Structures are given as structure tokens and as C-alpha cells.
Amino acid sequence: MNVKSMKLLLLPALGVCSLAGGCGGASKNPGSVNAGGAGQSAGSSGPAGSASVPSDAQSAATGDIPDNQAFLTFTDRAAGYSIRYPEGWTQRNGAGEATFQDRANAIHVAVLSGPPPHPGDLTGEIARLRLSDPTIKSGSPQSLTLNGSPVLEITFTRLSGADPVTGKRLALTIDRYEYARGGRVAVLDLGTPKGVDNVDAYRMISRSFQWR
Asked: Taking CA 196 as the corner, what is the angle to CA 193 and CA 199, rounded to the nearest 5 degrees?
């Protein structure tokens, strides 16, 4: 699977994890975590904001990452990258991807093969995702330089899946970053509900991504 087709899977794919209760078999081990092998296809986990909302949708208002939050380093040696994530968040690993969740906050990163993306590619990705999720609204892609390398970023909003009890849906904001090197592209989604302030923590996480 190439990068273009993988990106169409990212947003709707995650439905197997409840953001309220986490995922069975998830790792919460402290320290630097090394993932297993990475492949060229996305698994069952998906990007930030794709799972069902917590039973009490209003609990998302308490989802701010605190200023004294400890962060750990996740390393996927096969996919060739590392990234920091908040200690204590539920973790799931797939083939070439990883998801970290707490309440309705989620971090998802996936690495697949493909050429370096251009700003127009991100616009096209969001337009195709909107075909299956009309709640998506996006801003314009931005070109950044992080750690001395070019990175693309785009912010979009969407509604979460419906709460299984109340039917409520949360308004979510997702910051997507795309990093490219040597025929590989890493797509990082950082999702958080409206009203939750994780700007500083997510900025640090986006800048912690390193190719290995």
C-alpha cells in the first residue's frame, strides 16, 4: 500500500478502541518503548479522533495535558522513527503505526512508502476524506521547518463517532503533520476535543518526531 491510499484509511479506520476505556492489551510500560516490525499497510488502529466518545461527553473538558506531565519516548526501529508521548496514555501498536490515547485525546502516527508530499496533496487528502465524512472542515496546508527538515501541516475539524449511550458527538480538532525522508512518509495526527487546551504539549510532540 502506498502513502496516498493509506491516507484515505487513516481518518475512518479507528473504531476498535473506546477513548474512555482504552484498548485491551495496550502497553503502559514506562521508559523508551520499542515497537515490533513495521509494514507497508495500515492496521486496525487509526488516527486521532476516529473512535467513539466517552460515555460522558462533557468529561472531555478535563482532558488538558497538565504542565507537569511526564513524557516518554516511543521508538519503532523497523519503521525508523521515534516520538515522545505522554506517560500513562493507552498505547496500541500496529504494522508501521502507533496510537496513544487518553480520554478523547489521541495521537496517531503511521509510516508508509511514498514520495515527499506537497501542500496540494494535503488539500486533496482532506477533500477525499470529506466524501465519507461531511463533518470535516479544514484550513490551508502550511510548510514548516522542524529540526532542520521540511514538514507539512494542516488543521481540520470533525465530529467524533456517536457515544453509544447518549448519542452525543464531540467536536474534534486534528493537527496533521507529514514528514518525509528516503521514500518514506510519516503521517502524524494529534487530536483533541474542542475546549481542551493541548496546544503546547502537541507542539512539543510534533517537534519531537525524529527519523532514525
From this structure: 105
Question: How far is 72 from 87, CA to CA, in rounded Å?
Answer: 6
What's the whole-model pTM score? 0.77
pLDDT per residue as tens digits for the range 155-178: 999 998 888 888 889 999 999 999
Distance CA 125, CA 118 (A): 11
Compute the distance between CA of residue 185 and CA of residue 169 in angstroms, rounded to an integer. 31
Tell me the pairing of strands 97-102 and 90-94. antiparallel
Q: How far apart are CA 132 and CA 11, in angstroms?
A: 10
Residue (of 195, 185, 190, 193) closest to 205 by Cα position: 190
Q: Crossing angle of helices 119-132/3-13, nearest 10°?
A: 40
* Pairing verdict, β 142-146 and 149-159: antiparallel
